[in-house]
From TrEMBL:
Residues 272-304 are annotated as: Disordered. It catalyses: uroporphyrinogen III + 2 S-adenosyl-L-methionine = precorrin-2 + 2 S-adenosyl-L-homocysteine + H(+). InterPro entries: 4pyrrol_Mease (IPR000878), 4pyrrol_Methylase_sf (IPR035996), 4pyrrole_Mease_sub1 (IPR014777), 4pyrrole_Mease_sub2 (IPR014776), CobA/CysG_C (IPR006366), Met1_fungi (IPR012066), Siro_Cobalamin_biosynth (IPR050161), Sirohaem_synthase_central (IPR028281). This is Tetrapyrrole methylase domain-containing protein. CDD domains: SUMT. It comes from Naumovozyma castellii.
Amino acid sequence: MVVFEPLPLITASVSIDEHHLIIGTHSCPQSIKKIKTTIAAGATPILINPSHESHIKEISSIFLNESGFQLATRGFQLSDLTTLGRTQVQRVVDRVFINLSPEETPLTRKIYEQCVKLRIPVNAFQRPEYSTFHMIPTFTDPKGSGLQIAVTTNGRGYILANRIKREIVNKLPSNISQVVTNMGAIRDQIIHEDHEILLREKYLKTELSRDKLGYGLDDDTWESHKFNRLIKEFEMTNAEQKLKRTRWLSQIMEYYPLNQLANVTLDQLDENSHTPINLPSPNNPDNHENSQSINPETPANTENNSEVQLGVHLRSKSPNSIGKGRISLVGSGPGSVSMLTLGALHEIKTADIILADKLVPQAVLDLIPQGTETFIARKFPGNAEHAQEELLQLGLDSLKQGKKVVRLKQGDPYIFGRGGEEYLFFTQNGFEPLVLPGLSSSLASTVVSKIPATQRAIADQVLVCTGTGRKGALPVAPEFVPTRTTVFLMALHRSDVLIKTLIDAGWDKNVPAAIVERASCPDQRVTRTLLRYVPATIEEIGSRPPGLLVVGHAVNALINDSNLQFTEASKYYIEEGYHEFEMNFDNLLH
Ligand code: SAH
């Protein structure tokens, strides 16, 4: 059984100009490391009470030219804590690192007690009992993007934490520095250009406050449940119009393949831009020889990311390059490659051009052969109609050029995917699509979260509906049937209104509910609660789109867990992650 213990609060401390006292050099390398990290944080390290003559020499030789570094070769006295600090804080030092030998434990204890009294954060090397904070193994991007990743197991092994940190870092795309730098630059520019105008025009004061923008400056106060908030495309206020780029950027950061974020430009966030976001397909050596750039205007991109090829490519062996174009509308399933149909895989592998929805899972996009022209719809709040037209037009133009067009849609094309409209559009334009069903998130989400949508004596029917009707209006509330499992798609961003409508319409407010997010993806999250606690739960845990809501007694039919006793004080229960045991598709797919 897991016993929950209090967990330390992880923060990033701004330390510029602070005075950090390092007492002793029992472990010389440790002291050197502390001095280095202190300097890197913009603080002044003051080393006092070096343990050995040779340490003084070694440390002096390394930090001789560091202007901020101070060394006092004398012994330590308690008054140092309150005399070596900055004048602004009445000379109390800002932080203390103790590095004394085990024989000096009484002194370590004394310093620790005094620091606690004075509220000075203190860390004693290898003595957690005399520390009020611990250093965490941290990865700091050497290219200076500002990215830092820290991992702690809270006393279960520094080495293990270090190893986990390395594994995480290894999984990041190789261009992660550019991703962070590029997104940061675009975000800054938008904040300056758009928000400042708004602030000046007092929009923010009257109509929108900064928190409604969907993010704050502090990573932790970023309110993810707000960023997906519905924007009524046809009734956007002036201020909302101006904040569009902000929202688009948030969406891009949330949904787009991570490695592609290095290449997004501010231009592409301009609603008048006619360039859809071109997704260079990931490297797939198997298809390499099949692809060659035939457009001299858009040569293969050799700069900054060798995996990336920009521009228009036709595969020379394409059977569809000549003759009449052909189109298929293909469902790509909810997320996991294991839920992709063989038909969908065939279409992805043989397309000349792929027009993908924003939600198409990364794992599926990764299967697109290199050289296949790929576009992702810019379907962001406030741009859905425009993006849809843009994509359909691109599809039609490609068909007229005789290409094989694959319209890749998330889940099933005909379940809230506008597949029907697209079928009509292309058919009316002379190209009847082949439509391939996909596993809909509405029915896969239940399975991966241990919910049998029907179960004898518990649920004998299933309803799939939306929480958001046309143009943002609430749909008619479905009737409450106790033996029914109801799945609400597109329902989480305005759950307060939805749940109120349901309860007003006679739904049992204590019926079990599950918020299933990123179903079948590695970062899947399933949150069980009761219908009435859904809005408060979302407010608290934020959102991890895409997600849906499952309501009905089937939600807990397979689970007998004391964690499911919900009260005001304990409103929900979360399960993280999705594992497919040892499924490996490499041999099957490539
Ligand atoms: N055609 C898709 C649904 C498109 S509507 C399908 O059949 O699955 C988009 C909505 O689907 C999202 O708002 C969310 O409610 C739901 N959704 C899609 N993928 C999901 C996933 N992996 N996990 C949870 N919900 C998902």
